[in-house]
Amino acid sequence: MTPFIPAEWLPVVFAALMALSILLYVVLDGFDLGVGLLLPRADGEAERDRMIAAIGPFWDANETWLVLGIGLLLVAFPMAHGLILTQLYLAVALMLAGLILRGVAFEFRAKAGDLKEKRRWDHAFVAGSLLAALSQGWMLGRYILGFAEGPAALAFAAMAAGGLAIAYAFIGAAWLVWRTEGDLQRRAIGWARQAIWPMGLGILLVSAVTPLVSTRIFERWFALPDMLLLAPLPVATAALLLGIASLLKHMPLPDDALRRLPFWGAVALFALFFAGLAWSFFPFVVPDRLTIWQAASAPESLSIILAGALFVLPVILAYTVLAWRVFGGKARDLTYY
Amino acid sequence: MDALILARIQFAANISFHILFPTITIALGWVLLFFKLRFNATADDKWMDAYRFWVKVFALSFAMGVVSGITMSFQFGTNWPGYMERVGNIAGPLLAYEVLTAFFLEATFLSIMLFGFRRVPGWVHTGATVLVAFGTTMSAFWILALNSWMQTPQGFEMRDGIAHATDWWAIVFNPSFPYRLAHMLTASALTVAFLLAGLSAWRWLRGDRAPAVAATLRTGVVMAAVLAPAQLFIGDQHGLNTLEHQPAKVAAIEANWQTRGGVPLVLFALPDEAARENRFEVAIPYGASLILRHSPDGVVPGLDDFVGRHPPVAPVFFAFRTMVGIGVLMIGLGLLSAVLLWRRGALPRLVLWGLVGMTFSGWVATLAGWYVTEIGRQPWLVTGVLTTAQAAGPVPAGNIGATLVMYLTIYALLLTAYVVTVFRLASRGRIVEAVPGTAMPVSKVATP
């Protein structure tokens, strides 16, 4: 098959597709994992059930974006895939253990023989969510520093781990604000208020450290005129944080108005942060070591994947929208019929 | 132990754990569709009861398959970085098409199938069931295409030590693919047949006389009686295809050391690779020549033709006999149960207990079969292109060992929890609803 777009553009297209998949994963499974982190703060059995019902129909498809993201890394940039995953070997293994526990706990808790066993699966659900969130943050920190060793680098990774877990808790709380009502919704508003400023601090710290990693990244951000063109990024982030925080102070509003806004605000924050990272690292897929062109697969293989992806991705988006409509509105108890 | 052995054990443990669950969901998806269509056609509640019970087993199996499948997608990179570097141009698109055409379809429509019965029109719910079943089968299609390509690669050329695709049609429809796909899909259907029959027999023995129990027992028994003999034929065809393309694997299966005519069929032996002979051999004269060449004098390839290039003999030899042994039991019990059901309308307790004992027999046979074909491919990872040792990564043995212990612990716990839960769901029968996000299982009034 002959490439239907210029061969040198294929790695760029795939980097964009991969970035999109990872961003979608972080946002979508982010709220699932966040709800998992918040589960211990629920008030009683019924509230825990309702929180899990709020993510039950979504988590499986959400997690599939991780498979697509890592799959695109695997198929489009095989060199980088091997390099990154062997560097992050233990963190990846711990994340997988977390995702395994979280995923099966959904099913097992509902089919438990008694309350005690159900509580055990609840604990597995929380522990799995926490382990997955922390290891993803850890990997982010290690990646940003180009897998540097040493105490300072590890401290940064630990901070990124905590920061991402808090960010997940925030978007999870924002999801619950949208999808639940009554006492649980009021409690979720409180959780979001508690998480928003620690999350803002995490964004600030990571954004401050990243340009110091290498002169290349520093010049990307602080050379003129780029600096002026990039100014909207931090300004918009700060404005969003302030806006959501003051909205949360007044929620819940009469008629449950603006209930979706904290969630979509969180999505926008995640996207802005992600765009900043992408700007820092492009065109490297392994920071300062391997560019997307050096790591890419053969053009004829990328072309055949792209042909399929361009045909299938709109279909996937269409039926994802369908599923969101079917399970729209406030979470209700899930029943099989 | 060295890193290569540990990496192989870890990957084998993960892929063995993973395949148990797709083996159930591939065929169970279509069985659920059958229940749904029977319900649509007859309006008989027993089919919806059957659907509701088995959709729980499906959901649980699906979740187990998803989480272990995600682990797989990472272990390609962590355990076998050389694999993607060398043949990533072939494996990549096949894996990508699996994610794009199967994973999202299954994952999205599964929610509608599980929780959407009251939220969407009936035809949408039936349609979701169709799409989930189709998705699981598509997933099997792409994965078996890739696995078969690794067994019998074609449609590519090597440039600077890296495989480049030249003919995608030839890559997907490589010589062993149709046989392996048919064999695996039938294996899945047989696994589900005995799962249906076994759990239904268990419910019946515990005094659950709901119409759905009899219906699912009958469904399982009929599937077993038809498909177990069919699998014997498909497996034989698969074996002949292997003889043509991977003779060393067949030589290991038969534990046949010298290429010669009139080869006996070895029923039991202890293959001794150091002495290159069999100990304690029990064999049927001319059997292997008859089966493989359809003539008592037919020449069958021997392991001595492939010294240093053939798989370890004992694991392949015993795994094959385990698979065939269970297959024979399946044929016997399947036909016996079908005849008894047909003649007497019910099964005696002894036969019901036999079915209970065989509930997860499909798992054992399927795993044994995969061990035959995967260990039988060694020392190659991709036949003639890449050896397993060449694909290994630089991860230290200590890290692999530690994570291996972690994975094995998790898998042992989850497998126990799965089997216990499935039998407990069966014991509770249909009077209890248990779905994610509900309060404690609520007893429903049982309708007679």
Automatic annotation (TrEMBL), chain A:
A GO molecular-function annotation: electron transfer activity
Origin species: Neoroseomonas marina
Lineage summary: Bacteria, Pseudomonadati, Pseudomonadota, Alphaproteobacteria, Acetobacterales
InterPro entries (UniProt xref): Cyt-d_oxidase_su2
Compartment(s) of residence: Cell membrane
Protein family membership: Belongs to the cytochrome ubiquinol oxidase subunit 2 family.
Name the UniProt record assigns to this protein: Cytochrome d ubiquinol oxidase subunit II
GO CC term (a single one): plasma membrane
Pfam families: Cyt_bd_oxida_II
Entry keyword set: Cell membrane, Membrane, Transmembrane, Transmembrane helix
Recorded superkingdom: Bacteria
Residues passing through the membrane, by range: 12-39, 83-104, 124-145, 151-178, 199-218, 230-249, 261-282, 302-327
Predominant subcellular localization, coarse grouping: membrane
TrEMBL record, chain B:
Entry's transmembrane regions: 12-33, 53-74, 94-117, 129-150, 181-205, 212-234, 318-343, 350-372, 404-423
Topology in membrane: Multi-pass membrane protein
Compartmental location: Cell inner membrane; Cell membrane
InterPro entries: Cyt-d_ubiquinol_oxidase_su_1
Keywords carried by this UniProt record: Cell membrane, Electron transport, Heme, Iron, Membrane, Metal-binding, Transmembrane, Transmembrane helix, Transport
Example GO BP: aerobic electron transport chain
GO cellular component: cytochrome complex; plasma membrane
Stated family: Belongs to the cytochrome ubiquinol oxidase subunit 1 family.
Name of the protein in its database record: Cytochrome ubiquinol oxidase subunit I
Protein's UniProt keywords contain Transport: yes
GO MF term set: electron transfer activity; heme binding; metal ion binding; oxidoreductase activity, acting on diphenols and related substances as donors, oxygen as acceptor
